[in-house]
Amino acid sequence: MASVKEGFICPMCMQDLGDVLQLEVHFHEKHNNTKSSSSSETKSVLNIIDGLKKKVDEIRVSKKPLLSKAHIPWKTNDTDNGQEELNAHPVTGIHYDAWPESYHPVKQDFYEEFSRLRSKKTDRFATDTNKLIIRLEKLMTNLPNDPVKRRNHEKNIVPWMDEETVKRCPDCSKSFNVTKRKHHCRLCGSVLCAECSCAISFDMAKRLINPATISEFNIPSPDHEFGIKTMKKYGSKESLTSLFSPESSKSSSSSFRSCKYCADIIKKRDSHVRDETGEPPIIVQYYEHLKDVMAEADEMSKFYTKMVQSLQSGETDYRLEDAKYIRVKIMKVADNIDAISKRILANGLTEGEEGGTANNLQERVRSLALMFIKDNLVGLDDVPSESEFEILKFKRLEETSKRVEDEKISALIAQKKYEQRQQQRLSSFNMPVKSKPSIEKMRLEDGFVLSPNASYLNLLSSNDDPILQQIHIIEGYISEAKNANRINEVQTLEANLRDLKVEYKRSTAERKELEDNYNSYKHIFTASTPPMPPGSQNNDESINKNPFHEN
């Protein structure tokens, strides 16, 4: 069976032209002068082509165009008949220049419809909001503490719906039974289950009643509940202990039960009040508080690590009691961080609801808090016990004593070496005149000869200190080496000069101290010596010369 071709195919040469215009031009140019042009078959083909052309023109200019007829661009061909055609691509039919600057689209105004719908919804929202705020104010006025009296007070303010008429929860469509109890919204009186109910805290109610006192209801600690939160499910998953715990009774007695519709209205109103007063959202306040607590915990952990390292090394700079106290405090701070991060994660979510970008951000904050607790607070070293600390102190005392003894021995060895070097140096300067030529010149490693100037030699005398004489000689060598641009020799000589000056200062100070001590003791013993008998002053001259002589 022959294959079937589709498209704008020439009946003569079976060529696909892609468009009616292309097919018509091709047929008139290629097959117009053929012998078969006058045949009936050719006329029928031409009639078919003309019919297709008319249909294409009808499609292009439909009854419901995007543009009015006045905006459709036309052009006049240069043909003799002056026929007007669309300025479109011959194959694709797309108008590439169909949007002139003077184009004005057809438009329809929906603002009136939008205003009508918006006003209707806004009025309804404003009416419901004002009604709920008035009910909150009535509920907060003279609210009794007794549960039974409080229940009657709430029923008198807002009439409750009859429980018998409601068989399923209107939100989750689950049937009520023994484990799924019925509850009433305190703001509208509708019946719902515990999973679909929310809690409106007293602080939020007071803030909405009197927005001027919004600063009094800031949340400084994680023990404070969020303004709107999901009520706990009192079913088989919880024990009797949790139901009658102080925390559970505290949370239930400090908030009103509400349905999701009323809670959403209250939440939007509270957000609007916070925006007007310039107060950041609750989640932002919790995050700022979380950062402060984490910074405090980081400082405490670093200080605790320093204390434990000191105690484990046997030092007595810190006490064991202080380290244990800080360890307990760090654990409390870790619990505080965990509680704040949990509240950040639970903000704005109800049970079984999947959050979007905001919830992903809250989950990352929670993960960050857990990683911080794991890395910085949980894996800390333990404080040594008292018996272990005594052993560590004894070991450190032994190590310290051994180190002191080693340092003493090293100091004695160094002192002996230094004294030997000084004796050799002094003996070289106390040599007779024959050693004078040895200091006339000094030959260094690379053949450079240093000889002191005459001015430095004239300054030396036999009564000068040998170290001082050597200092003057080295200064002369340094001056000569500088003039010869001998940098290496200058550095070596300057190092020797510094050592000599230090030694000269030390010896001078020791000598002065000895002279002062001698003078002080000489005065004391001379004043306390009894007078000598006559005729005995010349018996022993050494006695008068030595004031320390004992009779």
Structure notes:
With 551 residues, this protein is mainly α. Among the domains are: 114-216 and 254-277, Herpes Virus-1; 282-347 and 359-384; 460-514, Irregular (DNA Excision Repair, Uvrb, Chain A), CATH 4.10.860.20. Helix content is 56%, strand content 5%. It contains 17 helices and nine strands. The strands form four sheets. A three-stranded antiparallel sheet has the order 6-5-7. A hairpin with a 5-residue loop joins strand 8 and strand 9 (449-450). Helix 3 packs across helix 8, helix 9 (282-312) packs antiparallel against helix 10 and helix 10 runs antiparallel to helix 11. The radius of gyration is 54 Å and the shape is flat. The N and C termini lie far apart (156 Å). The model is unreliable at 63-86, 214-226, 232-251, 431-448, 459-463 and 524-551 (pLDDT under 50).
SSE blueprint and pairings:
Elements: H1 20-30, H2 40-60, E1 74-76, E2 84-86, H3 111-140, H4 147-157, E3 183-184, E4 191-192, E5 198-201, H5 202-209, E6 228-230, H6 240-243, H7 246-253, E7 255-258, H8 260-277, H9 282-312, H10 320-346, H11 357-378, H12 386-429, H13 436-440, E8 442-443, E9 449-450, H14 454-459, H15 466-483, H16 487-528, H17 541-545
Antiparallel strand pairs: 1-2, 3-4, 5-6, 5-7, 8-9
Helix pairs in contact: 1-2, 3-5, 3-8, 9-10, 9-11, 10-11, 15-16
Domain FYVE-type: 163-267
Coiled coil: 483-524
Region (Disordered): 525-551
Overall morphology? flat
Structural class: mainly alpha
CATH architectural name of the domain at 114-216 and 254-277:
2-Layer Sandwich
Share of residues in strands: under 5%
Residue ranges: pLDDT <50 for 5 or more in a row? 63-86, 214-226, 232-251, 431-448, 459-463, 524-551
Q: Strand tally, please?
A: 9
Supply Rg. 54 Å
Please, what is the average pLDDT?
Answer: 72
Count every helix, treating DSSP H or I runs of 4 or more residues as helices.
Answer: 17
Under CATH at level 1, the class of the domain at 114-216 and 254-277 stands as Alpha Beta
The CATH homologous superfamily of the domain at 114-216 and 254-277 corresponds to: Zinc/RING finger domain, C3HC4 (zinc finger)
Major beta-sheet overview: 3 strands, antiparallel
Strand order of the largest sheet: 6-5-7
